[in-house]
Amino acid sequence: MRETTFVKKNIDKWEKFENLLKKKRPNPDQLANLFIEITDDLAYARTNYPRGKTTAYLNNLAAKVHQSIYRNRREVGSRIISFWLYELPQLFRSVHKEFFYSFLIFFIACLLGALSTAYDDHFARLILGDGYVNMTLRNIENGDPMAVYKGTHQNDMFFSITMNNIRVAFNTFALGLLFSFGTGYFLMVNGFMLGTFQFFFYQKGLLWTSVLSIWIHGTLEISAIIIAGAAGFALGNSILFPRTYSRSVSFRRGAVKGTKIIVGLVPVFIIAGFLESFVTRLTDAPIFLKLLIIGGSAAFIVYYFIIYPIKLDKQAQINPVSYFGMQEKVTEEEKESLV
To answer: CA 279 to CA 316: how far, in whole Å?
Structure first.
């Protein structure tokens, strides 16, 4: 059945359900029957129109029914907890395709940065700057190539680095307004810098030393920037490809989704800033401790941003009720555009 046919067939019933929910004391038996019918319609919509606005509308309607039935039940967790456990992973799942594109662009830029550094002796100075290259060469001569992380007091360094990382992430996201090309450009610039930086240390025979230092904080920091790139692409694509929504509605949804993702990245940047300011400078720390931090950070990124959202999505396919309250809200304007 085509989506428009499905909507026309059921829209009167759904509107009656909404009117029932507006009553102060709706009949419990009617609500129970309503809940069953809505979940049946939702299951059908999720199967046949998984990314359609009908599915989003029914999710919202089902959530209202569910909340009406269980209004007096004690909440399982606070709003903040549900945000981190369910809402954010759901948003991450919805931008997994954009996340892949963001990673691919960043990775290719890293390779190009490394390749350019290998074939051009002046490329590192062009990308990293003469001041940074000269300082690093002096540090290498002095036997402490990672001394750059020791030059500032920990507290000052933590604040400045964290704020800078948040600013970079927000810029990466906001540049999606330039039809996604701005986000892609920003990812390429940062990828060039990382690839150049790593190959520069490789040329000096210090690749492993640099990896054990910068990736203590870089695993979280770089991953978060790539995820911010996914949010930027989601924003840009909402303008370029509104699908069945009006362009204004699509843009609003993309902006809300991307903003929530950026907010969700703030704790990641705070932890990355703490590691860079207080841990990375400990260049004499045991190798196993460094590898533990790097490995733990990588495991967290892979699980929370990739595996866990997929698991939640599969659970939602089996039991849509488990996702109620976590779906994006459908406005009246979006509802009216269903028919």
So the answer is: 40
